[in-house]
Design brief:
Chain lengths: 14, 237
């Protein structure tokens, strides 16, 4: 991939 | 209030150099156990998590939890004014609107004082799930930095392939391709020079070298680096 995917969905909001 | 003294300013200089390309503004979350930072880059491709434990400072005092909103470009410029061996003291008062930094040369004949305006940074605290990774690679951090730099001449992307007895970094672009294979070594004198590959199952994943080169800037902070990989999970470095 030229651009990396967002990883935001992997983490949980505390 | 916060008051924390580091024996050598170089520690914070290295930390800021490693973080500043990824993070523009973020909070230093200070409490009695230390100073923590958690921030994503603006495109939410990378999460930086940092903890400076209270034991690393002498003295360290933090009366109550405070979040200090820092602009890292400004802090990086100020930290350039510190000598590597200078003592560094950082301070913030109750309801402070500035972070104060004092650099003191080893023979105390030069004392520099800077105040950085604090910002309101609205940030979520994120939980990082426990993950059993398919592959964990430990290697010298300088070697990892060199691999990322060398393969950048061929491509913007690197594929990391971990198998039982080796890890292969592969870059392929319009002008050609390159690969670097690193094999485990056991009998090395220095622990930092050790290469180990711990494998549950083989993995092969591709990442942007731009980000890996940013991460590799932290190689001055530690002699070794650990890469943890699984399908569909962010690479943890």
């Amino acid at each position: 991939p030229a651009g990396q995917r967002s990883i935001a969905a992997f983490f949980t909001k505390k | 209030m916060l008051e924390a003294r580091l024996p050598s300013a170089v520690t914070l200089k290295k930390i800021i150099d490693a973080v500043k390309e990824l993070v523009q503004d973020a909070n230093f979350d200070c409490n009695d156990s230390g100073i923590a930072l958690q921030a994503m880059d603006s495109s939410h491709v990378a999460l930086v998590a940092l903890l400076m434990r209270a034991e690393g400072f002498d003295p360290y005092r933090c009366d109550r939890n405070i979040a200090l909103g820092i602009n890292f470009a400004t802090l990086a410029k100020v930290m350039k004014c510190a000598g590597n061996d200078d003592n560094l003291t950082i301070k913030a008062g109750e309801d402070a609107d500035v972070l104060s930094l004092m650099f003191e040369s080893t023979n105390s004949d030069r004392i520099s004082e800077f105040d950085i305006k604090l910002m309101d940074v609205d940030a979520d605290h994120l939980g990082i799930p426990e993950t059993d990774y398919s592959a964990t690679i430990k290697m010298p951090s300088a070697e990892f930095q060199r691999i990322c730099r060398d393969l950048s001449v061929m491509s913007e992307t690197v594929t990391i392939e971990a198998v039982k007895d080796a890890v292969k970094f592969i870059a392929s672009g319009d002008t050609g391709s390159g690969s670097i294979t690193v094999k485990p070594n056991q009998a090395v004198d220095k622990k930092d020079m050790e290469v180990t590959v711990t494998l549950q199952e083989p993995v092969k994943l591709a990442f942007s070298l731009k980000y890996l080169n940013h991460f590799a800037k932290a190689s001055t902070l530690a002699g070794s680096v650990t890469l943890s990989l699984s399908d569909d999970v962010p690479l943890m470095i």
